[in-house]
Model the fold of this input.
Amino acid sequence: MRTNIVHIGATELNYEIRKIVDVAHEIARMSGQPIQWENIGDPIQKGESLPLWMKEIVASHAMKDETYGYSPTKGLLETREFLAKRRNSQGNVKIDANDILFFNGLGDAVSKVYGFLRREARVIGPSPAYPTHSSAEAAHSGYPPITYRLDPARGWMPDLEELRNKVKYNESIAGIMIINPDNPTGAVFPREIIEEMVQIAREYKLFLVADEIYINMVYNGKECTPISEVVEEVPAIALKGISKEFPWPGGRCGWMEVYNHHKDPMFELYIQSILNAKMLEVSSTTLPQAVIPEVMSNPEYINWQKERNSFFEKRSQMIGKIFSDCPGVIVNPPDGAFYVSVVFDAPLGENMHLKMPGADIKSYIDKLCPPGVEPDRKFVYHLLGSRNICVVPLSSFVTDLRGFRCTLLEKDDQKFEETYRTIAEAIQEFLKS
Ligand SMILES: Cc1ncc(COP(=O)(O)O)c(C=O)c1O
Done:
């Protein structure tokens, strides 16, 4: 090429959650056995079905001609008014329909949030981190992500001292990102932690990005504090969506609520640039936006959510039981979302391995694990090759911790228990090999 056509952040884009799928398909072909998918957070793929009343609402809207047209750039006014009213009845920050902007899923919102930041301005995020955020942030700057640690030994609570110090000594940090409830850890951060983060943002004149896509998926008696309850005058963006909550990930529908943008001219200009960028794309998908008010105000909605959360609570407790007797790893049963991260706390050696069922699979997996491969990646490939279970290595979530992430989504109790007992047994075989 006459001119370098590669974007400055091209090497920062990585989404192992989907990359591993090709390897898994190859293992399924070679072994002739199905894969137990524990890699991706798609409840539909894992056999969840939307309740009939919700499908009927979607179907009735699908019969209306107007749902086939473009929506306004910010999103349907009626839906934004509904969401603003709902927010105002819960949070202490008051918003109106103009403070809400729809996207084609939060993936689209995330790429705009970082893509339209000035290149030198950085957003510090959690480690481990959901890669859609960390990769988009790093790609916009051309440098690796800047992170604060979530500590597995303290129930995945953030290291606020590290956060404060990094913010204090790195002037390029303009924002703090938090995912609450968190992916990949399943942690729900207590109110005091969110308040302290807001305080750091206030002191150093930063803005906040709170990814709250799992905000209504909380259990084990925990409560999750939306940023709107504690943000007061600090500029902030809350990201919400229906991919996990309805769950309708294929609807590609999420939205941004902006708090306090009129209080800071620079933040206001930044938000305006995101809106202008969305205008160039015309609008986001109309049908899922159209159904939101009717679904969320349906009398069945709250009970149905409670039932769903008690399913995840049961899964979380099963995880607690299975891993209570599994030396060599730290496992915090999740309190929110539907992921669990297993962290190795025993030292991992180069020669650790799992026995493969045949020479062809062994040779295929060995090629994927050359000398020097991350040990958790090796464990994940060996688990796939030896037991047809597909999880994601923690090292692909921007962290020095070694482990893997899996999900609570399996609907069948027996299959769930069997999968996790097999994983626990594979951990012991790997550590003792
Ligand atoms: C924390 C978090 N944010 C955003 C997304 C993306 O959601 P969407 O389907 O709305 O693009 C996900 C998907 O897994 C997620 O876990």
Summary: The CA atoms of residues 73 and 282 lie 6 Å apart. The longest strand covers residues 173-179.
